[in-house]
Design a protein that fits this description.
The protein is mostly helical. The protein is built from 4 helices and 2 strands. It has a two-stranded antiparallel ribbon with strand order 1-2. The longest helix is centred in the N-terminal third of the chain and has 43 residues. The radius of gyration is 20 Å and the shape is elongated.
């Protein structure tokens, strides 16, 4: 199947729920990142103060917030005059199944901070 027709209101509801889940995940990961940085800084200050060893620099991956992709899709559905929306297979995968290309980066970042996404 190359395309599928979906009720616009149903699609809009799914998109809004997916955006909320994305925003929740991003918010939690930002808090985890902040906590990890603070923990590292406090440890580094103690090491440096006693000079037991030179603190190692550490890279803390930034959290990518792709809410704008959801916002764009939601706005398109809100403005559509069609009651049924025809989606390609890739659009269905993104909009309904929530499999966006940026999700891989978010999952990798979550793994770095020892978190599993909802």
């Amino acid at each position: 199947m190359k395309t599928v027709k979906i009720n616009r209101d149903d699609l809009l509801e799914v998109l809004i729920n997916n955006r909320e889940k994305h925003n929740r995940n991003v918010s939690e990961l930002k808090a985890d990142r902040q906590a990890a940085i603070i923990e590292w800084m406090e440890s580094s200050i103690k090491e440096f103060a006693t000079y037991t060893k030179e603190p190692e620099l550490k890279d803390f991956p930034k959290i990518g917030d792709n809410s704008s992709a959801y916002d764009r899709a939601i706005r398109m559905m809100e403005m559509s005059v069609d009651k049924e929306i025809e989606l390609s297979e890739s659009e269905f995968d993104q909009y309904v199944m929530d499999n966006w290309s940026f999700n891989h980066d978010l999952l990798r970042t979550a793994t770095f901070y020892g978190k599993q996404l909802a």
